[in-house]
Specification:
The chain is an alpha+beta fold and 183 residues long. It has helices at 2-32, 120-125, 174-182; strands at 37-42, 45-48, 51-59, 62-72, 79-80, 87-88, 91-99, 102-109, 127-136, 140-148, 155-163, 168-172.
Length: 183
C-alpha cells in the first residue's frame, strides 16, 4: 500500500512539474512576441516579426488612410551580422494609401530603393527595418523609415514624402543628424 501511495505521489509531482514548465514556457513565448525579431528560422535565416499598421489622417480636406505592411522576404539578399555571424532575411514594406476611400498610392519598398543614401556597410549588412507615418507636410504625407544593422542601434534614418500629385521624394533625415551634432 505504501508503494502505491509513493508511486502516486511521484506521478503527481511529475504532472505538477510538467504543467508548471508549460506555464513558464507560454509566458516566455508571449514575451518573445514583444521583440522585433521572432525566433523562427527560414532555411537558417532569422526573420523579423511582421508588422501591419493601418490608420488615417486628414490632409487638406481629404481623408488619407494608409496601410503599412512589413514582412521578411526570402527572395531578397540575405544579410549577415558581422559581429554575431547570424544570417537574417531582409524585409519589404508595402505602403498602400487611399484618399477619400479610393486607391491613391501603392508601392512596395525594399532596401534597394534607398541605396543612394547608404554606404557599403549598410548596403551589405543592413535591413529595411522601421517604417512609420511621421506627419503631414505642406507638400504631402511624410513617412519615416530606416535601414539598420540587425538587432542594433546603428541605422540610417530616411524620409519618404508622398505628394498630393502622387510623386515621391526620398531623402536622408538630416533632422536626427543635426540633433546628434549639437549634443
Amino acid at each position: 500500500m505504501k508503494i502505491i501511495a509513493l508511486m502516486l505521489l511521484c506521478l503527481g509531482l511529475v504532472c505538477f512539474t510538467s504543467c508548471r514548465n508549460n506555464v513558464t514556457n507560454s509566458s516566455d513565448t508571449s514575451q518573445d512576441t514583444v521583440l522585433s525579431y521572432d525566433e523562427t528560422f527560414n532555411h537558417g535565416a532569422i526573420e523579423m516579426s511582421s508588422l501591419n499598421v493601418m490608420d488615417s489622417v486628414v490632409y487638406k480636406g481629404h481623408v488619407y488612410t494608409y496601410n503599412i505592411l512589413r514582412v521578411s522576404d526570402s527572395t531578397l539578399a540575405r544579410v549577415k551580422d558581422p559581429e554575431s555571424q547570424n544570417i537574417y532575411l531582409d524585409n519589404r514594406v508595402e505602403l498602400k494609401i487611399m484618399r477619400d476611400g479610393a486607391d491613391f498610392y501603392v508601392k512596395t519598398f525594399t532596401k534597394t530603393d534607398f541605396e543612394q543614401f547608404l554606404d557599403e556597410g549598410f548596403r551589405t549588412n543592413g535591413l529595411l527595418e522601421g517604417f512609420v507615418f511621421d506627419d503631414t507636410a505642406d507638400e504631402g504625407l511624410r513617412f519615416a523609415t530606416s535601414v539598420s544593422y540587425p538587432q542594433s542601434d546603428m541605422y540610417i534614418s530616411l524620409t519618404i514624402l508622398v505628394k498630393a500629385d502622387k510623386s515621391v521624394v526620398i531623402a536622408k533625415d538630416n533632422l536626427i543628424d543635426s540633433a546628434e551634432e549639437t549634443e
